[in-house]
Amino acid sequence: QVQLMESGGGLVQPGGSLRLSCAASGSIYAMGWYRQPPGKQRELVAAISSGGSTNYLDSVKGRFTISRDNAKKTVYLQMNSLKPEDTAVYYCNLGSRSSSGNYYPGGSWGQGTLVTVSS
Fold first, then answer.
1. What secondary structure does DSSP assign to 40-107, as a single string?
2. Contact indicator for 118, 18 with CB cutoff of 8 Å
3. CA 33 – CA 14 distance, rounded (Å)
4. What is the pLDDT of residues 92-105, one digit of tens each?
5. Which of these, 15, 53, 84, 103, could form a disulfide with 47 (CB 3.0-4.6 Å)?
6. CA 92/CA 78 separation, integer angstroms
């Protein structure tokens, strides 16, 4: 099973930026970034296909960008204009993405990285 490891979380002020990284131990295909805010369910934030097609949670469109470097087996999540409601543990996932754009999570998850947006 492919191992995933996230990094890049931390404390940032509202309006600030962070870039999360997810390094994989093996080949990556469709990848997704999820987040779990305190006391809430995990939700899909962004996903990217093997070909680079992307989709985003409505509340992060225009602020977050998912990208990938296949040679480095790494997926990134650039987060700009961060808001307090973006506070969550962020997880990456190795899954699959349909031609219609739906992302389906697989069984490989990272350990998570905490993002706290607060002044």
1. S--EEEEEE-TT--EEE-GGGTTTEEEEEETTTTEEEEEE-S--GGG-EEEEEEEEEE-TTS-EEEEE
2. no
3. 21
4. 999 998 888 899 99
5. 103
6. 13
Residue 62 CB coordination number (10 Å): 10
The owner of tokens 């409505």 is 58
- Residue 64 neighbours by CB under 8 Å, 6+ apart: 45, 46, 56, 77, 78, 79, 80
Eight-class DSSP state of 25 = S
**Six-digit token pair at 83?**
């808001």
Residue tagged 């962020």 (tokens): 90
- Both structure tokens of 17: 């930026």
**Structure token pair of residue 26:** 């093996």
- Give residue 8's region: left, alpha or beta (phi > 0; psi -120 to 50): left
Length of the chain: 119
Q: What is the pLDDT of residues 27-76, one digit of tens each?
A: 888 999 999 999 999 999 999 999 899 999 999 999 999 999 999 999 99
